[in-house]
Structure formats: C-alpha cells, structure tokens
Amino acid sequence: MKKQQKGFTIIEVVLVLAIAGLIFLMVFIALPALKRGQRDGQRRQDVSRFMSQINSYSTNNRGDVPSADNSRMQIFLRDYMKQQDGEFKDPQTGENYTVAFTGDPTTSKLIYQTGAKCNGEEFTTGAGTRAVAVRIALEGSGTYCQDNQ
C-alpha cells in the first residue's frame, strides 16, 4: 500500500499565485484612479468654499465682489480664504491655488471672472456686475465651473 502524501500540488500553488497576482494588478490599476477622483472631489469642494467666501465678502462689502483689481483679490485671499495660513491649497501639489482672471484653468489655477455665470464647463458673460464664476481643471477630465447665481 502506498501512503498518500500531504501537501499541495504544483498546479494548485501556481493557480493561487496567479489569482493573487490578478488581485494585486487590479488594485494597482484602480488605486491611481481613486486618488485622482479624491483630488478632483477636493478641488470641487475648494471651489464651493471659494464661492461661499465670495458671498461672505459680498455681504460684508455692500454687495461688491472682488474684481480683477489685484489688491482687492489679494485681500480676499488673505482674509477670507486664509491662503497665507495654508488653508487654500491644491491637493496634489500642496501649493496655494493661483487665482487668475484670464486664460485656461489648470488643476492648481482657478479662473475667476466677474459679470459671468457658468454654462456647463464654460463662462457666459453679461450676468451683471455682482455675478461671479470660477472654473478649475480636473485631473480626470474637463473643468468644473461654479457661479454665485
């Protein structure tokens, strides 16, 4: 009589390793997309917070909004967004967001326009002097636009 040996066959070991390899591969493929999605979510929240602070600024300044006048925007960023305290930073780079009044948005640059509102991912002008809109590029795709209308 032949005794049966205990243990795994080489085929069983290879099969388990192949399955584990596939699981790791799926995790490593999905992880960057999840992180990118989290950073884009943070950017959307930052734009919403920016618009909320624009409304606060407007309330405290008789309905005026910060304009393209650089000194007024710097005061807004310092006093309302607490940019100097490090509270208004891009989640990917860790650097302060840049606020520009023209050009194309990037993931760390907000495009701010007075007299505008959002039309999907773009600005529409002619919305009145107290209307403002902000756009930012997202890592996933496209841009995110929000206005105070």
What's the topology here?
Elements: H1 10-60, H2 70-79, E1 98-100, E2 109-114, E3 116-119, E4 122-125, E5 132-137, E6 143-147
Parallel strand pairs: 1-2
Antiparallel strand pairs: 2-5, 3-4, 5-6
Can you put this structure into words, describing what you see?
The protein is an alpha+beta fold and 149 residues long. It has one domain. Helix content is 41%, strand content 19%. It is built from two helices and six strands, in the order H-H-E-E-E-E-E-E. It has helices at 10-60, 70-79; strands at residues 98-100, 109-114, 116-119, 122-125, 132-137, 143-147. The strands form two sheets. The chain has a four-stranded mixed β-sheet, with helices on one face. It has a two-stranded antiparallel ribbon with strand order 3-4. A hairpin with a 5-residue loop joins strand 5 (132-137) and strand 6 (143-147). The longest helix is centred in the N-terminal third of the chain and has 51 residues, at 10-60. It is elongated, with a radius of gyration of 25 Å. The mean pLDDT is 86.
